[in-house]
Specification:
The complex is a heterodimer of chains A (489) and B (272). Chain A has a 6-stranded antiparallel beta barrel with strand order 12-13-14-15-16-17. A 4-stranded antiparallel sheet of chain A has the order 6-9-7-8, sandwiched between helices. In chain A, helix 11 packs antiparallel against helix 12 and helix 12 runs parallel beside helix 13. With 489 residues, chain A is an alpha+beta fold. Chain A folds into 4 domains: 46 residues, no CATH class; 144 residues, no CATH class; 128 residues, DNA polymerase, Y-family, little finger domain (Dna Ligase, domain 1), CATH 3.30.1490; 91 residues, no CATH class. Chain A contains 16 helices and 17 strands. Chain B has 272 residues and is α/β, with parallel strands linked by helices. Chain B has one domain: P-loop containing nucleotide triphosphate hydrolases (Rossmann fold). A 9-stranded mixed sheet of chain B has the order 6-4-7-8-3-9-10-11-12, sandwiched between helices. In chain B, strand 11 and strand 12 form a beta hairpin. The chains are: A alpha+beta (489), B alpha/beta (272). At the A-B interface, helix 13, strand 10, strand 12, strand 14 and strand 15 of A face helix 1, helix 3, strand 5, helix 5 and strand 6 of B.
């Protein structure tokens, strides 16, 4: 790589190209962000210029944030390029806070990234200290003294107020910290004091993690990265057992599980499965993941392998252990729920559907298809209108949506058709019943919809159809149209 | 499910079992033996040697493209006859079937006797997935019945797959119906193979179309000769096929098939 040639990233600002980020070589030569490209070119003729791509930057930071999940599940984005990790209670897994920070920064360095970091008891403190390459670790309770030497720019205030502070002779955080708060707030705003207190770790300001935090989590770290599908599934099975025992102590079962695969090169893959009812049977969970992995056309892309696999239960609900009733009904329900989960994991939950009745007369709106797993296994209500005994089917087994237009010939304007042509085949009507009038839902679709007169007809061959006429015959109206809406068995 | 509900359904199942044996013993012609599903307690059951074999693969073809809906209705009726009370039915359907013949309609399912809440519909794009999901469902012993509906003659559906269905059904006790719209009947590994066409229904009052009526042909029967054709009507309330009203009630005969040409009938209706 021609390291000697300075590189600048440029972006458009007010119609001109301006340097957004110079590289180290460019900074050494005196280029700074905000300088126009024309001026920089005038100073340095051999400048390499690249266009700023905020989306790519963002994607990179997101990827790094994903990767940081290996240290703690509580990772938050901070500004455009910052990441905040809540490492409460996890540092001992990495032999202490300093070791954790070293490990993290060294790994990032290994990935070719320049990163600074600091650890402190308050997020604002850590953030201010992370701007230096010193890898500071602030001991608990010493936040105030740690931020003392920092310049007031660490407060992150707007330039006007920074200038006001500087004019008052306040140059460092230390200058501010000892002063009484009330006059400071009166002169520079309450915001200034709040920022100061956060920076000194006096007031708490929680971070909001970018991803939900699992209720129960289990992980395996591998010294030798694994890549074989069989190894991965065996690992998932063991993790499922761990998560299940965690859930058991809580008396809960998981409704959604997520497996994260951390690749050696920093890439993270995530796979989620959902269940119809709270579940904590390790075998069932592992099987769902097996289905899902099996169904992926391009499986995990293990590359050089995964060095960390993690399984978390995200949504949990109280778990009621199935009790075998006399006829084994509860166990049957469970077996069906398991089947629904497996099919959902393999083919997608939106393809495993249940029927839910809607309170409407419009046939095409009457049946709503809902993923079965959202219905829950318990107490699914029966259909709201079951036919009376001895009644012939009044509604067709299958329904066309949209209805298919047909050419129909009727004998009387309001009567059933004598014959109709559907899909280029002429059907002679032998029997018919109707009309059954279904009016449009003006409260939903607005006025102006046409009434439909439905007829059940049977043709000479014995096929049964559901036809309707939209509107009626009248002198001042266009000819009504006929549609085939459904087929009876 | 609450214990009360479970107990109730268990008792219902027992009563249904007692009734089934009592009824079957009455006519003595065709008793649905153990492991058999009674279809009509008459000619069809007799030809099947005592009913349709439970926990096996049965294949259903439509006579023509226009009869696909009849084949669907017949499969559903068989599934209803096969499913013990309270057990869900899984219908695995290729999307193309719905594009061609319309999507399943909740009220229409109810009109054939299935509570739509007891149906799990698996809609899949390609036939391979349909067969896979069907195989998965066939292994689940808690289901009442499974209908597998791939469209046409997919390459993936060979003897091996059918054999697998048959074995899965035998192991789990779930009866599997392989519905074959757009396919021609071929020798294969199913227990029975049916050809179904829509039959003219015995008309109701005012010349209204009647109950679902099927013209059945038993193309293949592993344990006996093929049979049919039969014309049967599905009785939703008894979950049984019956001979059409035409044969049950001679009074309906003159009204059913008038020898008059259609024009005359039209005139008659116009006058009425």
């Amino acid at each position: 790589m021609p390291a000697e040639q300075p590189l600048v990233i440029v972006e458009k600002a007010k119609g001109a190209l301006v340097i957004a980020a110079p590289d180290a070589a460019a900074i050494d030569l005196g280029l700074a962000p905000g300088l126009s490209l024309a001026e920089a070119r005038a100073r340095l003729s051999d400048l390499v210029v690249a266009e700023h791509d905020p989306a790519a930057d963002d994607a990179l930071v997101e990827a790094i944030a994903d990767w940081c999940d290996r240290y703690t599940p509580l990772v938050a984005r901070h500004g455009a390029r910052g990441l905040m990790l809540d490492i409460t209670g996890v540092a001992h897994l990495f032999k202490g806070e300093a070791a954790l920070l070293d490990d993290l920064l060294t790994r990032l360095d290994g990935l070719g990234l320049t990163a600074f970091g600091a650890i402190a008891g308050a997020p604002a403190t850590a953030r201010a200290l992370a701007r230096s390459p010193r890898r500071t670790v602030v001991e608990p309770g010493r936040e105030a003294s740690a931020v003392r030497p920092l310049p007031i720019t660490a407060l992150g205030l707007d330039p006007a107020r920074l200038q006001a502070l500087a004019r008052a002779g306040l140059k460092t955080v230390g200058d501010l910290i000892d002063r009484p708060r009330a006059p400071l707030a009166a002169r520079f705003g309450a915001d200034c004091v709040e920022r100061l207190e956060r920076l000194a770790g006096i007031s708490e300001h929680p971070i909001s993690p970018r991803r939900p935090v699992p209720v129960a989590l289990a992980e395996r770290i591998f010294f030798q990265p694994i890549a074989l599908a069989s190894d991965i599934e065996a690992t998932l099975a063991r993790l499922a057992a761990d998560v299940a025992s965690l859930l058991e102590t809580r008396g809960e079962g998981g409704r959604s599980f997520e497996a994260s695969f951390y690749r050696v090169d920093g890439d993270v893959r995530r796979i989620t499965v959902a269940t119809a009812r709270p579940n904590r049977a390790p075998k069932a969970i592992a099987r769902l993941f097996h289905e899902k992995l099996d169904a992926l056309s391009d499986p995990l892309e293990a590359g050089f392998g995964f060095d960390l696999i993690r399984l978390g239960a995200f949504r949990t609900e109280p778990f009621v252990a199935a009790q075998a009733s006399l006829d084994g009904h509860a166990l049957d329900d469970e077996a069906v729920a398991d089947l629904v989960d497996r099919l959902g994991a393999r083919f997608g939950p939106e393809r495993v559907l249940g029927f839910v009745p809607e309170d409407t007369h419009i046939p095409e709106r009457r049946t709503r298809m809902v993923p079965v797993f959202t219905l829950g296994g318990e107490g699914r209500a029966s259909w709201d209108e079951l036919p009376a005994a001895g009644e012939p089917p009044l509604r067709p087994l299958s329904l066309f949506d949209p209805p298919e237009p047909v050419e129909a010939l009727g004998e009387v304007p309001d009567g059933p058709p004598l014959s109709f042509r559907w899909r280029r085949v002429l059907h002679q009507v032998a029997r018919a019943e109707g009309p059954e009038r279904i009016a449009p839902e003006w409260w939903r679709d607005g006025a102006g919809g046409l009434d439909r007169d439905y007829f059940r007809v049977e043709d000479r061959k014995g096929c049964r159809f559901w036809l309707y006429r939209e509107g009626f015959y009248a002198a001042d109206r266009p000819q009504p149209r006929w549609f085939l809406h459904g087929l009876f068995a | 499910m609450s214990t009360a509900k479970a107990t109730l359904s268990a008792l219902r199942q027992r009563i249904a079992a007692i009734e089934a044996t009592a009824e079957g013993a009455g006519d003595g012609l065709a008793v649905a033996g153990p492991g058999r599903i009674a279809l009509d307690r008459d000619q069809v059951d007799a030809a099947l040697g005592g009913g349709l074999v439970r926990g096996a693969l049965h294949e259903i073809h439509a006579a023509t493209g226009a009869d696909n809906i009849a084949a669907s209705g017949f499969s559903l009726a068989l599934a209803l006859a096969a499913a013990p009370a309270g057990r869900p039915i899984v219908w695995v359907r290729q999307d193309y079937a719905a594009q061609e013949g319309g999507g399943l309609h909740g009220d229409g399912l109810a009109a054939l006797g299935l509570d739509p809440a007891a149906l799990i519909l698996v809609k899949l794009r390609d036939p391979l997935a349909v067969l896979r999901a069907g195989g998965e469902a066939a292994r689940c012993g808690a289901l009442g019945a499974v209908i597998v509906e791939p469209w046409g003659e997919p390459k993936a559906l060979d003897l091996t797959v059918q054999r697998r269905f048959q074995l899965a059904a035998e192991a789990s006790g779930v009866t599997v119906f392989l519905l074959r719209p757009g396919a021609r009947p071929k020798p294969d590994g199913a227990e029975t193979r049916w050809q179904v066409a829509s039959g003219p229904a015995a008309p109701l009052a005012m010349n209204a179309p009647g109950h679902p009526t099927f013209d059945l042909t038993l193309l293949r029967h592993r344990h006996g000769p093929p049979g049919g054709p039969w014309r049967v009507e599905w009785n939703r309330d008894a979950k049984l096929f019956k001979p059409p009203a035409l044969l049950r009630d001679p009074a309906a005969v003159p009204r059913l098939e008038p020898a008059a040409p259609p024009a005359e009938r039209a005139l008659f209706r116009l006058a009425g």
